[in-house]
């Protein structure tokens, strides 16, 4: 789809009907007609595979049928996986949201979502292939949730190593994913201070990309996240656009981050809303770890009871 649009633009330029504009200047939002709905998201797959379950229709209607980011981790074929996914979205003229989640020592402090690439060189190869898989297709990318905030238990050498990897990630997305809006993750309103995270964002190369994300996998209300993001911007030097994860913030934050009760789905993906975009970055119904109201469900695994509780706000 993007290729057809590009060819048409070239024809018009040749005919002197429109001025030539560099491809890198294009907005992925303007190049597409809405957000991509992944038919194979974890909620959609669960609903399809459990059609006889009384919860399936509700989960599909309220969650599986909505635009949700797809998270990409350690995969030796990451380039082709990303190319296939973004190609499917482009074939529908839709904008996919991807999460790059493979930093070494991932979730080093909390431990629930541990893993990631085995070395710095492995990560550099992985993120380069990730960016190349997107290429010129329109996309939104969230870079390494929690990576900047989750450094407080690291040694200085580990922090420097991580910042270097994130800087490389921003460079690869800038160079190889030319119609992508990429956002470094900046945590949430109740975690790292705005001044500290702004300093880290600058070290990690935010100048190379579109902006930053807030509230990923958390529950703070959109208004709280806007206030926090504006505060981060006040320390950045050059204000940057930001996106907010609204997947589970319908009832706000209750003091817990790991499968807390009483949370609710937030507004579905849209442009604007006080940020550049409001997105479902965390997949509703996917566990934060074996904790809270899902004490036996590992991080990253879909739990239909978690999903229905988010639908009902219970």
From TrEMBL:
Gene Ontology molecular function terms on file: hydrolase activity, hydrolyzing O-glycosyl compounds
Residues annotated as the enzyme's active site: 146, 288
Pfam families: Glyco_hydro_6
Enzyme Commission number(s) from the entry: 3.2.1.-
Signal peptide (UniProt feature, chain positions): 1-20
GO terms (BP aspect): cellulose catabolic process
UniProt xrefs under SUPFAM superfamilies: Glycosyl hydrolases family 6, cellulases (SSF51989)
Sequence positions that bind substrate: 71, 191, 218, 257, 282
Keywords, ordered alphabetically: Carbohydrate metabolism, Cellulose degradation, Glycosidase, Hydrolase, Polysaccharide degradation, Signal
Family the UniProt entry places it in: Belongs to the glycosyl hydrolase family 6.
PANTHER family per record: 1,4-BETA-D-GLUCAN CELLOBIOHYDROLASE C-RELATED (PTHR34876:SF4), PTHR34876
Protein name, UniProt field: Glucanase
């Amino acid at each position: 789809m993007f290729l057809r649009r590009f060819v048409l633009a070239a024809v018009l330029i040749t005919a002197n009907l429109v001025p030539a504009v560099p491809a890198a200047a294009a907005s992925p939002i303007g190049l597409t007609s809405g957000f991509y709905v992944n038919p194979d998201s974890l909620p959609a797959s669960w609903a399809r595979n459990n059609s006889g379950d009384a919860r399936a229709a509700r989960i599909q209607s309220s969650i599986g049928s909505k635009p949700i980011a797809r998270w990409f981790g350690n995969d030796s074929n990451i380039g082709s996986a990303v190319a296939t996914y973004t190609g499917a979205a482009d074939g529908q003229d839709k904008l996919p949201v991807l999460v790059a989640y493979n930093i070494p020592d991932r979730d080093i402090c909390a431990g629930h979502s541990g893993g990631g690439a085995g070395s710095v060189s492995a990560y550099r190869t992985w993120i380069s292939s990730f960016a190349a898989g997107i290429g010129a297709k329109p996309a939104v990318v969230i870079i390494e949730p929690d990576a900047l905030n989750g450094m407080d238990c690291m040694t200085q050498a580990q922090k420097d190593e991580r910042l270097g990897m994130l800087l490389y990630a921003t460079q690869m997305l800038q160079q190889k994913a030319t119609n992508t809006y990429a956002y470094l993750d900046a945590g949430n309103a109740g975690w790292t201070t705005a001044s500290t995270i702004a300093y880290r964002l600058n070290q990690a190369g935010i100048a190379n990309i579109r902006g930053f994300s807030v509230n990923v996998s958390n529950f703070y209300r959109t208004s709280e996240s806007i206030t926090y993001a504006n505060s981060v911007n006040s320390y950045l030097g050059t204000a940057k656009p930001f996106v907010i994860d609204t997947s589970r913030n319908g009832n706000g934050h209750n003091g817990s981050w790991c499968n807390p009760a009483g949370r609710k789905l937030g507004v579905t993906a849209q442009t604007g809303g006080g940020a550049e975009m409001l997105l479902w970055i965390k997949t509703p119904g996917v566990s934060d770890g074996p904790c809270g109201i899902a004490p036996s469900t590992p991080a990253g695994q879909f739990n239909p009871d978690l999903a229905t509780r988010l639908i009902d706000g219970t």
